[in-house]
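In this supplementary section we document a worked example of the pipeline. Step one takes a protein sequence of length 249 as its only input; no multiple sequence alignment statistics are reported here. Step two produces a three-dimensional model, which step three serialises into structure tokens for compact storage. The input and output of this example are shown verbatim.
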Amino acid sequence: MNASAVESVTRAEYCVIACAEAWRGDGEILASPMGAVPSVGARLARLTFAPDLLLTDGEATLVGADGEAEGWLPYRRHLALVTGGRRHVMMGASQIDRFGNQNISCVGDWEQPARQLLGVRGAPVNTLNNPVSYWIPRHSPRVFVERVDMICGVGHDSARAAGPSATRFHRIPRVVSDLGVFDFATPDRSMRLASLHPGVTTDQVREATGFALTVPADVPYTRGPSPAELALIREVIDPGRTRDREVGA
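The serialised model returned by step three reads:
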């Protein structure tokens, strides 16, 4: 991979790197990426800095970094991994608020919603039993809201309100969007801008966020892929460029 290729890194490829980094240091753990970009990111992590990472197709098959089946995961074992904290999910969010509460169920009042979505699914159990990160391909005030219409994934304030049984294993390592990377490294565990994707400004992020976001004085840029990582993304993991269909930049 030559220098000019590295200079032409796309927004989607920065997002892949940001998602891959969510699994750095996790150890041997089951990665459950939901979406094209997180899936490419998890496979990149497996091929580079996290060789012991277990990958799943989202159902019952363990897959290799090339996507080929390499094992079967019985549902009872999958549940054991979930309840034992040996799984790191990267979910989507129709809404997410400043404390990391996530909504994928409905928009509007629960009694008569304006829009019905996926439903609560496994979000509460995921967030209370194992690390959960989020991938949001279109950062906007409609997604990053002051307060979610319904809590599916449990945020920091909701976990605190429920007490020690809810906070014991609760962890939201990061939120990745098409604009940047976010964490909750603040005194009240509200959302903080951790890095900007190159070409994005802090003003853009603030305008696209529907709540007061903590923005440090000096915000770094999201790290770019090395030539070797870029070659893996483009030539081995995702030659069909599914990543661009989610981000498109």
